[in-house]
């Protein structure tokens, strides 16, 4: 097992470097400051002995750990992102280390009375006696996903220092801008050259995910007719009332606040309106492909129906797909999930396999030709001041990465794997 101190040192160094991404920027990386950590990571990968360390013009980092065995096995990859969420400040992160957590309230910030309490964040109970890293209450922590980076770098270092552990070629990929949905956009899957990969970007210890939402966004624009209200009878069309009809025609219980597990939804995210013009924004989510398509159709039909009541077309609807459920791409290769599951069991981590109610970089990568389930990185309460991570969960994540490498090498030992592993 890898030492706690080593993980704490590495992780706290990373989180102190501000790498917040910015959805309003069109650049990659979206913020210049992401280079600060990116350059450091490339340097560090070289220092620990990784080969072919490259950082491209968009700050994507790739590196190779060469195989240490004679037989051919598939090249596998591990991926995480170094940006942090724009939802909360990542400037001057001041990590707090709580050793031998006593299971009680943690005072993050005495002055501002900010408390991380197991009464509210019940997951804390399971970490009694462990070492926690928290914020000082004024920033996020950035365990999402600097924990994933820490774990991958540490696992590679561990494999380099323990050459008796057999493994095939391993590729490492670190990306900017995942939090603004663009982590996978400029990821060169061909250059990466792995048969499959794992994002280390899940939450609590044990999480293993290969299903996520199918996702689309819809913009509905409604045109009204503004007339002097004193003389508007039979003439005015108030776009806000039509918008209201549109909204109430959709099932009220198929919304985020009334759904869970594999239930999909319509989510009204934004309304802007006046008499002349109202714009509604929705996101549509469903794990099931057919249900997902049906939801989009419901919106289209509703728009048609309302339009049919008027002479002109007053509703315009634009629907854009955002990402798809990776299950479709991963299921034909279920052994890649099985290996991860088996690795967890062998290092005493109980696998928690459940559908993600969101997307991951892995879902995009899976559709770009790199099947990519998601594994826990260990943190909780992402994107805010209550974010924390148990160091023991990071230790487990490192152990899982090492074991996946080992099991992959073992699994292909007696198979004639042949040419497929050539990049
Ligand atoms: Zn993340």
Account of the protein in words:
The protein has 423 residues and is of the alpha+beta class. The protein folds into 2 domains: 4-211 and 326-421, Aminopeptidase (3-Layer(aba) Sandwich), CATH 3.40.630.10; 214-322, 2-Layer Sandwich (Alpha-Beta Plaits), CATH 3.30.70.360. The chain has 10 helices and 17 strands. Helix 1 (4-15) packs across helix 3, helix 3 packs across helix 10 (391-411) and helix 8 (335-346) packs across helix 10. The chain starts with a helix and ends in a 12-residue tail after the last helix. The model has no long low-confidence stretch (mean pLDDT 96). The protein binds zinc ion. The site of zinc ion has 5 residues, from helix 3. It is found in: Cytoplasm. InterPro entries: ArgE/DapE_CS, Bact_exopeptidase_dim_dom, Peptidase_M20, Peptidase_M20_dimer, Peptidase_M20B. Zn(2+) 1 binds at residues 81, 144, 201.
User: If classified by CATH, what would the architecture of the largest domain be?
Assistant: 3-Layer(aba) Sandwich
Overall number of domains:
2
Largest sheet: 8 strands, mixed
User: What structural category do the secondary elements indicate?
Assistant: alpha+beta
Tally of helical segments: 10
Report the CATH topology name of the largest domain. Aminopeptidase
Name the poorly predicted regions: none
Q: How far from one another are the termini?
A: 32 Å
Strand order within the widest beta sheet: 1-2-8-3-9-16-10-15
Percent range for helical residues?
25-40%
The H/E string reads HHEEEEEEEHEHEEEHEEHEHHEHEEH
* Bound small molecules, deduplicated: zinc ion
- Give the percentage of residues in beta strands: 15-25%
- How many extended strands? 17
């Amino acid at each position: 097992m890898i030492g706690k101190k080593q993980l704490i040192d590495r992780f706290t160094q990373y989180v102190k470097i501000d790498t917040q991404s910015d959805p309003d920027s069109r650049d990659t990386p979206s913020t210049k400051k992401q280079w600060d950590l990116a350059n450091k990571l490339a340097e560090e990968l070289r220092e620990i002995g990784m080969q072919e360390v490259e950082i491209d013009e968009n700050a994507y980092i790739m590196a190779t750990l060469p195989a240490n065995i004679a037989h051919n096995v598939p090249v596998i990859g591990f991926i995480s992102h170094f940006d942090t969420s724009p939802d909360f400040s990542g400037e001057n992160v001041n990590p707090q280390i709580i050793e031998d957590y006593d299971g009680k309230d943690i005072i993050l910030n005495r002055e501002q009375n900010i408390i991380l309490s197991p009464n509210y964040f019940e997951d804390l109970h399971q970490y009694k006696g462990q070492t926690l890293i928290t914020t000082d209450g004024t920033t996020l922590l950035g365990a999402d996903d600097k924990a994933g980076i820490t774990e991958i770098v540490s696992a590679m270092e561990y494999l380099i220092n323990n050459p008796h552990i057999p493994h095939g070629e391993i590729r490492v990929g670190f990306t900017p801008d995942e939090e603004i949905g663009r982590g996978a956009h400029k990821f060169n899957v061909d250059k990466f050259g792995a048969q499959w990969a794992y994002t280390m970007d899940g939450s609590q210890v044990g999480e293993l995910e290969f299903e996520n939402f199918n996702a689309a966004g819809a913009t509905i624009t409604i045109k009204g007719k503004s007339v002097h209200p004193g003389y508007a009878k039979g003439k005015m069309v108030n776009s806000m009332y039509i918008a209201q009809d549109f909204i109430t025609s959709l099932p009220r219980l198929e919304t985020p606040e009334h759904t869970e597990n594999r239930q999909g939804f319509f989510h009204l995210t934004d309304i802007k309106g006046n008499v002349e013009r109202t714009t509604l924004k929705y996101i549509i989510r469903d794990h099931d492909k057919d249900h997902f398509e049906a939801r989009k159709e419901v919106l289209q039909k509703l728009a048609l129906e309302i339009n049919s009541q008027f002479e002109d077309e007053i509703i315009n609807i634009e629907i854009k797909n955002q990402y798809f459920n990776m299950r479709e791409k991963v299921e034909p290769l279920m052994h890649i999930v099985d290996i991860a599951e088996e690795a967890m069991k062998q290092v005493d981590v109980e696998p928690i396999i459940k559908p993600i109610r969101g997307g991951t970089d892995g879902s995009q990568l899976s559709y770009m030709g790199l099947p990519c389930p998601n594994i826990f990185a260990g943190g909780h309460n992402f994107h805010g001041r209550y974010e924390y991570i148990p160091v023991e969960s990071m230790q487990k994540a490192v152990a899982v990465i090492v074991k996946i490498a080992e099991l992959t090498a073992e699994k292909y030992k007696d198979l004639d794997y042949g040419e497929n592993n050539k990049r």
